[in-house]
Write the C-alpha cells for this entry.
Amino acid sequence: MEVQGESWLTTKLDAFTDWAQKNSFWPLPFGTACCAIEFMSTVSSHYDMARFGYEVVRFSPRQSDLLIVAGTITDKMAPVLKKIYEQMPDPKWVVSMGACACSGGFYRAYHVMQGIDEIIPVDVYVPGCPPSPEGLMYGILQVKEKVDRERKALKRSPKNRKPKNAA
C-alpha cells in the first residue's frame, strides 16, 4: 500500500527540525579587535542570550553554524577566516559585527580588508564602532528570521513538491 503525499510523522519531524534550526544557533566568535569585547559582554548573564537559544558558544568551526566576525581583518588573516568558514558544516550563517568587519572601519590601509564580504558571504551586517550588545542580539535575531524565511521558501519551491498523481 502506497501513501501519497507527506505522512504525519515526516511533517512533524520537518516542523521540529525547522524549529530547532532557527532557535538553536551555535555561534563561533572570530574576534580580532575591540568588537570581541562587546561580544563577550553580549554572552554574559546581564544580556542573557540564552533566552534566544544561543547560550552554547563553540570554539570549533566543525561544531558551529553561526560565524560572528568581530574586528579588523587584515590580508594575512583573510585566508584563516576563509578556512574557518569552509570548515563549518552546512547550513551556516555569518554575522559581520562592527565597522571594521563590515567595511574596513577607519583603517583605509593597504593591509586591511575593506569588508569581510570580499572573502566570505555575509548574511547580516551589524554596524557600529563597536556595536552595542543589543545591536548584536538584534542582528542575530535577523539571522533567525532569515533562516525561517529560507526554510519556508524551500518548502514552497516547486522542485521540492511531488506531483499528486505520481506513482
